[in-house]
Design goal:
Largest sheet: 2 strands, antiparallel
Radius of gyration: 16 Å
Helix content: 40-55%
Strand content: 5-15%
Order of helices and strands: HHHHHEE
Number of strands: 2
Number of helices: 5
Strand order of the largest sheet: 1-2
Length: 110
């Protein structure tokens, strides 16, 4: 029961900070969460992707980079980065290089 109380308090706190609780993403598989993150990355990087969303191979490179890191703290540093913008460099299927921004909450991309 303590875990349920903690979860409820955390959700309430995050909502107060502007986050939206997504019930459709609760108690789902890793694949579902990865699929959602892929959608977010494609949306946040749309202007850099030139109409070509991340391919399975390209998204796999992003996932590999996250999995390579050993501690939650270091993953957080990768995802949030300096100044609230994290990035992961990948090579696209066409051979071009791309910095995939993992968090553009505070970045004006217009």
């Amino acid at each position: 029961m303590a875990e349920a109380k903690f979860e409820a308090a955390l959700i309430k706190k995050l909502e107060a900070e502007g986050w939206t609780y997504r019930k459709d993403l609760s108690y789902v598989s890793i694949k579902v969460l990865e699929g959602h993150w892929r959608e977010v990355l494609n949306e946040n990087n749309a202007y850099k992707l030139n109409g070509k969303p991340l391919s399975d191979v390209e998204f796999g490179l992003v996932i590999q980079e996250v999995q390579r890191i050993k501690t939650p703290y270091d993953v957080q540093l990768l995802l949030v980065g300096a100044g609230g913008v994290g990035s992961i460099p990948i090579t696209r299927d066409d051979g071009s290089n791309l910095e995939v921004w993992t968090n553009v909450k505070y970045l004006d991309t217009k």
